[in-house]
TrEMBL record:
This is D-alanine--D-alanine ligase. Mg(2+) 1 binds at residues 249, 263. The keyword Zinc does not apply. Residues 100-296 form the ATP-grasp domain.
Length: 302
């Protein structure tokens, strides 16, 4: 029986989501017949994994440290096969500006952007409103601010003493329209989901609270837009050097027929409201089958 360590938790801003993802993946792996050990990842992760002695690691971590190549490097050093993307792909995808440079080289359309410090973004509009401020290396929409058209000044939150998303930011053109997402498993794009929410945008609560958003699968789109979104998601996955499961997010301005990629998630959520399990189910793969696929896909760069 294959012994699988499911790592989750950690100490990023996405800890609570990671706990939920990891615990549910662990339960699914047990139902599929694996010998599962659950690990709430600490800074002694190498010691935790060495003690657990797994045959493979199912990575349920989200956010900085668990998703940006750091944990992946630990598992490479330990020569442990692990799920999802490797060191370089994880680091590239986590950095919104670097990943957008890769997208552009691959011919995938992106929104206009500009790298700014928090001080610069707080002092004057870095782009003409409307625009979005995003931390360069955060997930789950943490620290995302929308500056609306006609705004006289930048977002006040940038000057708050409670700001905890760093000084390295990206200002990005605001693309109106519809929120779309596409999951990729290995070399296959699964489907296009449209996400709707009554909130200002698809923020943390919309993503993870019950009723925070509605998912329409398959998205009701022109056939060429569906094809383009799935093609771009697969190309993004390949251009970044990803493996396993990823999920790429898009905005579609249907008034101007403009589709742009926003980011690729190398550790997509695996909670009850998560999009990848929904898309897997849509193509006939149960949650247990999806988790088993991730485990069997685990590898490292030996």
């Amino acid at each position: 029986m294959k012994r699988v360590a499911v790592i989750y938790g950690g100490w990023s801003s996405e800890r609570e989501v990671s706990l939920s993802s990891g615990q549910q993946m662990a339960e699914a792996a047990r139902k599929s017949g694996y010998d599962v050990v659950e690990i709430d990842a600490g800074r002694n992760l190498a010691e935790q994994l060495t003690k657990a002695r797994p045959d493979a690691v199912l990575n349920g971590l989200h956010g900085p440290w668990g998703e940006d190549g750091c944990v992946q490097g630990v598992m490479e050093v330990l020569d442990l096969p692990y799920s999802h993307s490797g060191v370089l792909a994880s680091a590239l995808a986590m950095d919104k500006l670097k990943s957008k440079a890769v997208y552009q080289q691959a011919g995938i359309p992106v929104a206009q952007d500009k790298r700014v410090t928090r001080e610069e973004a707080a002092a004057a509009h870095p782009l003409a409103p409307p625009y979005v401020i995003k931390p360069v290396a955060e997930g789950s929409s943490f620290g995302v601010l929308i500056v609306r058209e006609g705004a006289n000044a930048p977002a006040l939150e940038l000057t708050s003493s409670n700001w905890r998303y760093g000084d390295n930011l990206m200002a990005e053109e605001f693309i109106p329209g519809r929120e779309l997402t596409v999951a990729v498993l290995g070399d296959r794009a699964l489907a296009v989901t449209e996400i709707t929410t009554l909130r200002d945008y698809y923020d943390f609560d919309a993503k993870y609270e019950a009723g925070g958003s509605q998912h329409v699968i398959p998205a009701e789109l022109p056939a060429d837009v569906t094809h383009a979104a799935m093609d771009y998601a697969l190309r993004a996955h390949q251009a970044l050097g990803c493996r396993g499961a990823t999920r790429s997010d898009f905005r579609y301005d249907d008034k101007r027929d403009r589709l742009v990629i926003l980011e690729t998630n190398t550790q997509p959520g695996m909670t009850p409201t998560s999009l990848v399990p929904e898309q897997a189910a849509f193509v006939g793969m149960s949650f247990e089958e999806l988790v088993a696929w991730m485990i069997e896909d685990a590898s490292c760069q030996r």
